[in-house]
Amino acid sequence: MALQNIGIDLFKSIIKESKENPDLIDSYSYNQFKSKENLLKHIDDLQLNKPNIIILGCWFGSILVPALAEKANHISCIDIDDRVIGVGKCRLFTMYDNITWFSRDVWDEHHWHRIKKADLIINTSCEHMSSMSELPVLYKSNAYFAFQSNNMYDIPTHINCVSNIEEFYSQLPHNASVIAEDAVEDDRGTRFTIIGKLCAE
Fold first, then answer.
1. How many degrees, rounded to 5, is the angle at CA 65 between CA 62 and CA 67?
2. What is the DSSP string of 118-136?
3. Residue 56: helix, strand or coil by DSSP?
4. Which of 159, 157, 141, 130 is nearest to 197 (CA)?
5. What's the confidence (pLDDT) of residue 3?
6. HSE on the CB side for 19, CA within 13 Å?
7. d(CA 138, CA 141)
8. Contact 99, 65 (CB under 8 A)
9. How many C-beta neighbours within 10 Å does residue 86 have?
10. How far apart are CA 43 and CA 68, in angstroms?
11. Residue 87 and residue 13: Cα distance in Å, rounded?
12. How far apart are CA 170 and CA 68, in angstroms?
């Protein structure tokens, strides 16, 4: 996905909003594009037909939302941060009518039914939360998943980094089968990607 595909109106909104939310620009950094493009390539390989997608720890939805909105039946975006949900919902992506935004903790059971019914579960923020093996609803899901983590231990909000892909494997639910794995280097460390399929118990 090239930068110009964001669209000029969205680009203007990004510049405007970044004055009050400077971390929004970081969500469009070269490193973010590099890792998200890698993830999107693997998702395309799954050849899903208009899936229902849920993004856990969606942040602003910066790159994934515009890349997936027209390919998805519906996207549910969940993040614990009210601020980023508000920016994504009310200022950046008002042009899409198939996106629903939720300011919730991923571990809040009120939204587990959305996770359970999803065709594709995306989490590019695994380093920001407990291991996916500890999320009970994943053991009741038959969804595909696309997870990313990294070894960037020096970032304060990273509470659950992994040193390598093998360590990331150990954080998967035991009902997960792996389809693809990848690692992308950036100027702060390595981002690890695992694509796979859950099988409900």
1. 100
2. -SEEEES-GGGSS-GGG-G
3. strand
4. 141
5. 42
6. 4
7. 5
8. yes
9. 15
10. 10
11. 10
12. 28
Both tokens of 114, joined, read 């959305």
Question: What's the CATH number where 62 sits?
Answer: 3.40.50.150
- Total number of domains constituting the chain: 1
Cβ density class 119-150: b for 16+ within 10 Å, e for less: bbbbbbbbbbbeebeebebbbebebbbbbbbb
Please give the residue range of the domain that contains residue 14.
3-198
Burial class (CB in 10 A: 0-12, 13-18, 19+), 115: buried
69 close to 6: Cβ distance less than 8 angstroms: no
Q: What are the tokens at 191?
A: 């981002």
pTM of the model: 0.92
Q: What is the pLDDT of residues 62-98, one digit of tens each?
A: 999 999 999 999 999 999 999 999 999 999 999 999 9
